[in-house]
Amino acid sequence: MKLFTREEDGPDSLNRLESKLDGGRQLLLEGEGGQDVYHQWLLTYFLRTSKSGRYFGLEVADYGDPDSSDEEEGGDVELKIVLEDPETTDLRAISDLLIEEYEASSDKTIQTFRRFGDIMKD
Question: 100 lies in a domain?
Fold first, then answer.
């Protein structure tokens, strides 16, 4: 099992690995977070997969201020972490690991949930 992150491995590594994530994209979580009333955000986490079952990625959509009307126009979407050769095929366990790794190194996390994808409902 190997984790690749944008911060540690650089954007070029993740951009190369992104082409391997050809199996689809599934909603994991959507929600809001903030530092204070003036610094709030709306985030969505997606699980990206490879057809081979060898690669999994966490894609994060950042819509900015949840009270803004810009939400409907889409946010900045970026692949944050790629997991290669996980020791399990359980998508929930893989998703939990990817989210935990991302949130441990990010200032922006989901603190209040709006929506759960099917993988996260169990």
Answer: yes
Q: How confident is the model at residue 40 (pLDDT cuts 50, 70, 90)?
A: confident
Domain count, the chain: 1
C-alpha 121/C-alpha 41 separation (Å) is 23
Whether 77 has a pLDDT exceeding 80, the answer reads: yes
Q: Which amino acid is at 115?
A: R
Residues pairing with 83 in the sheet: 3, 56
Residue 16: how many other CB atoms lie within 10 Å: 12
Interval 81-122: pLDDT, tens: 999 999 999 999 999 999 999 999 998 899 999 999 999 986
Per the CB < 8 A criterion, the answer to whether 45 and 28 are in contact is yes
* CA count, 13 A, side-chain hemisphere, 122: 8
Long-range contact pairs involving 60-63 (C-beta distance under 8 Å, separation at least 24): 60/102, 62/108
pTM of the model: 0.88
